[in-house]
Amino acid sequence: MKNSTVESRFENRLGRFVVTRSEECIACGTCILSCHLGVHGRKPGFNRMTPPRNFLCEGPSCAEKETSCVARCPRKALSVSENRQLAALGDNRWTPEMILAVCEMARTGKAPEDGPPFEKGKSFGGFDLMDFVFPASVPEIEESAIDLSIPLNRRGAGEEIIIPLPIYGGGMSFGSISLTTMLARAMAATELGTFTSTGEGGYPEELVPYANHIITQIATGLFGVREETIKRSRIVEFKYAQGAKPGLGGHLLGDKVTERVAEMRQSVPGRSLFSPFPFHSVYSVEDHLKHLDWIKAIHPGVLISVKVSTPSDVDMVAVGSYYAGAHIIHIDGGYGGTGAAPDIAKKNIAMPIEYAIPKAHQFLVNEGIREEVVLMASGGIRTPHDIAKAIALGADGVIIGTAELIALECVRCGNCESGRGCPRGIATTDTDLEQMLDSKWGQRRIVNLYTAYAAELRSLLRKLGLKSIRELRGKMNLLSVSNEPGNAS
Amino acid sequence: MAKKYVIHTQQTENRFPPPGKYLVTRGDLCINCGKCAVRCLYEVHRRSQADYRKMDDPLSYNCKRCLSCIQGCPREALSISLDQGFQKLGDSVFTPDIIAAILKQAESGQTPVSGGGYGGLFAGCGFDAMWTDMSEIVRPTRDGIHGREYISTAVNIGRKMLDVKEVTFDEEGNPRFNIPPTVEIDLPILFDTIPLSMKNPNLLEAICRASSILGTFAIVERRNMNQALSSYESNIIESLNVEDMSWKELKEAAEGRSILEVRYSSSVAALPEALKKVNPDLIVMARLEEGEDTADKTEEMYRNGIDVIHIRGEKNLPGTISAAHRRLVAMRVRDTVSIVASGAIAEASHVPKSIILGADAVAIDIPLLLAAECTLCGKCRRTPPGKCPKDLEDPDPRWAGLRIINLMAAWHNQLLEILGAMGMREVERLRGEVGRAMFKEQLDEEFNRRKQV
Predict the structure, then answer these.
(1) A2 in a structural domain
(2) Is residue A107 part of a domain?
């Protein structure tokens, strides 16, 4: 994996600092000469300075250096402060620091070296109260020798697939996100050797060249499910439920159903589309088995993933899915999700993923079938640290969605459902807004993100003294959980 | 099957600009290039109609925090911050976000929907320390929200079941049933008396009108009854201030009514029996402020012949409901009395959660005011009362009624979502079903046990 800096699509990327120029400025230009980052400038032929490019500033730590504009300004007209606008960004789960760090990883391919910690959010629970307990002394391990790969088929029947890092991309459908975004994700998955999922909504022709790294989703509406798309895919994902709206089915609002989307889904443009909940043909593990057999008959050798949410009996659901013949059990917790969902469902229905992973994992262990099935977790997994925590709780790997969108400069404004859709050109089917995002650019941003995540994971494993990510699975004793919410921040 | 219950909604606009969460500011560096207006999808930025060379001040309340204008401004002249006024709205139960969400629901009647997952706290206490269950694969769900399967939200209030002790036998040994009266409401939500001093006739009329259209009850203090409310009488529960009333007045109030509310104190212990002598079909509801002795008081009220126990609580409401419910279960009389919970019911999820904890129905008060654009500024509670910034002294009763109906339509749909996800077709069967919820305490305990393995 190679990485290089991929700049923001916007004139001003989000930065942590603001440079203020007061009335005292005499436009002498000393600041232009001192700053090596290009914060200050003056257009040819102009006397006055252009406004500072705030986002380029590295902050008060610069004050000690030779390059400090604040220190060298003869009129003391410049000052640097924290960017207070960031208070308006993010929320408890995705803090501004976390969004900025993920953006930075997507930009440079490396985790930010300085700056505030971004490993945990401020939701005062779950991953945000967990920390790794690093042993005092560990064997010396070369980071490059640490193995992050995981197999996606552990039960024999079907193709052997190993992905080089324990992450793949979650389902986002054509219609909920733009074609350019889908393409960016598919191209990145291909370059990385991992997978991305179509979501429920069909398989646009443009994705066919990347078919080896695309999971076809079959969901309750059966939108866009065709024989050829099943034959094309190495992994087919059955979506029974999704964490953001467990028990509620899918929902694509009419505004986003353009002619192209409608054609793909064999529906009418402008009409809202609801996927029912549940599969009205599955009311038992035997029915479930019948569906999986149907896919295996169409495409022998295909791997089957079963995506379920986190009810109180998530352990039974996991075991049932195994006996129905699933290779991958994908449990999706309630706090994640990318698409539009009722707020009441996101907060209140089904348990958070942090509780569901150990519940499903230990039940599979006790049933003696843990080594024959792959347990993937998603729904609220944000940082590389969350990934490691999910694996320590018992998952084999994770599936991410929101983090990829943030790499594409989503700011989590949450208006994915409204009218023309996303003002950032991601979750839209509007032909103008779609143009805001170039697939190649998106591909490079996502590759950078995964590269940075992989590096952080390796560094964590080295500190834990583990040579492979597979050794981390289920090691809950490596985690300490703080019970004092007050100390969490 | 009973007729399907449908709430018809109608877009009913705000009269005032809604409080905006974000404040967008245009600084001196702006060169009026207009790029922000091109970028913005929500009409925050516009050219001045008076002078096309200039940009208007941003309409911050439209801002949805996409940051596109901020990041696209060539002069970095725009900035965004959290609106300080918005942050100060409401209190710890009715938070600024809850107030804003109620306003939106009252306007459109739609369930709040957003993308990008959940961004709030992991959990909290009370209602925030529980998650409702859902079913998949091995247990069917119900597809109620889009009307493909009918989910009933009706509940009966009163003594639902015969107390075995009340069955008597005649000379020939045949049982004589004295079936107690109940009333059915289509939605497990009653409208409580409004707590603020904002008790103007128009708002009361709007509330009663909405209760009659929705098929539920509005609780109205007897002294606030007026001529305009008489056409909604069958959907009104008069609340009596017993201490101020003579027996003659009490008798008058009980005659011809199906249900009445009294404020409970031990001194009125004999009242229910006396009122039922006047009107045998009367359901007596009594209001109790939550306290440490709620369970004891509940038992006492039951023994004194109260049919509906109306518990008002604040932050501790979830625990209080549960305590009262469990006491009645332990006494084996749970079905012979109803529990209505009110006070801290602030959002749609609190309705099913209260019912899971043991209430038969809830009653709401402040959300009714919020639907009519109140922002809990408190000016009306001052002495002398200040002018209401939202003109709630005199809102159009039709407008305010539609807003309340819209809000209830949104809550009804959200209740269907919760019930459908857990695979239930009657809200009445959800009462006390704690197995339909997952509690943080219990999940933490399981988590810690697994961690020891």
Answers:
(1) no
(2) no
Which of A82, A100, A119 lies at the terminal end of a domain, its last residue?
A82
Q: Determine contact: B113 vs chain A, CB below 8 A.
A: yes
Per-residue pLDDT for A223 more than 90?
no
B114 touches chain A (CB under 8 A): yes
Q: Do B348 and A344 touch (CB under 8 A)?
A: yes
Alpha-carbon distance of A309 to A317, in angstroms, equals 9
Res A176 pLDDT > 90: no
Closest by Cβ to B115, choosing from A89, A416, A420: A416
**How many domains does chain A contain in total?**
2
Which chain B residues are within 8 Å of A125, Cβ to Cβ? 121-123
> What pLDDT does B196 receive?
60
Q: Which two tokens stand for residue B11?
A: 């877009």
Instruction: Measure CB to CB from residue B68 to each of A278, A349, A423 and give the nearest one.
Output: A423
Q: Check whether residue A149 and residue A283 sit in a common domain.
A: yes
Domain spanning B155-444: which superfamily?
Aldolase class I (3.20.20.70)
Q: Which two three-digit tokens encode residue A395? A: 């998952």
Q: Decide if B41 touches A, using CB distance below 8 A.
A: yes
Q: CATH 3.30.70.20 residue ranges in chain B?
A: 22-87
On whether any CB of chain A is under 8 Å from the CB of B39, the answer is yes
- The answer to whether the CB atoms of A282 and B137 lie below 8 A apart is yes
- Long-range contacts (CB closer than 8 Å, 24 or more residues apart) made by B444-448: B446/A355, B446/A359, B447/A354, B447/A355, B447/A358, B447/A481, B448/A481
Answer whether B290 touches A (CB < 8 Å).
no
A112 and chain B: CB distance < 8 Å anywhere? Answer: no
Q: Does a structural domain hold residue A291?
A: yes
Enclosing domain of residue A53: 17-82
Q: A247 and B145: CB-CB below 8 Å?
A: no
Residues A229 and A375 in one domain: yes
Task: Verify whether the Cβ–Cβ distance A313 to B111 is below 8 Å.
Answer: no
Q: Which tokens hold the place of A24?
A: 């005292």
Instruction: Give B91→chain A minimum CA distance, Å.
Output: 19
Domain boundary among A64, A82, A100: A82
Residue A24's domain is classified under what CATH number? Answer: 3.30.70.20
**Confidence band, pLDDT 50/70/90 cuts, at residue A489:** very low
Q: What is the pLDDT of residues A99-157, one digit of tens each?
A: 999 999 999 999 998 888 999 999 999 999 999 999 999 999 999 999 999 999 999 89
For the B22-87 domain, the top CATH level (class) is alpha beta
* pLDDT average, residue stretch A201-212: 91
Residue A174's CATH number: 3.20.20.70
Structure tokens at A39: 């914060």
Q: Which of residues 29-58 of A touch B (CB under 8 A)?
A: 51-54
What amino acid occupies position A6? Answer: V
A76-97 mean pLDDT: 93
Task: Tell whether the model's pLDDT for residue A1 goes beyond 60.
Answer: no
> Which residues of chain A neighbour B417 with C-beta distances below 8 Å?
247-248, 342, 344-345, 349
List pLDDT tens digits, range B409-447. 999 999 998 998 888 999 999 999 999 999 999 999 999
Provide the terminal-to-terminal Cα distance of chain B, rounded to the nearest Å: 52
B75 touching chain A per CB within 8 A: yes
Cα–Cα distance, A439 to A188 (Å, whole number): 9
Provide the pLDDT confidence category of residue A465 given band limits of 50, 70 and 90: very high
Provide, rounded to the nearest whole percent, the portion of chain A with pLDDT above 70: 96
Question: Do residue A457 and residue A397 come from a single domain?
Answer: yes
Q: Same domain for A250 and A386?
A: yes
Q: Do residues B56 and A3 make contact, with C-beta atoms less than 8 angstroms apart?
A: no
Please write the tens of the pLDDT for every residue from B203-239. Answer: 999 999 999 999 999 999 998 898 999 999 999 999 9
Cα separation values, A163 from A98, A148, A166, A169, A474, Å: 26, 9, 7, 12, 19
Per mean pLDDT, which range of A18-22, A285-289, B92-96, B301-305 is the poorest?
Answer: A285-289
* A106 inside domain: no
Mean predicted confidence (pLDDT) in B28-36: 94
- In our burial notation (b when 16+ CB lie closer than 10 A, e otherwise), range A79-107 reads ebeebebbebbbbbbbbbbbbbbbbbbbb
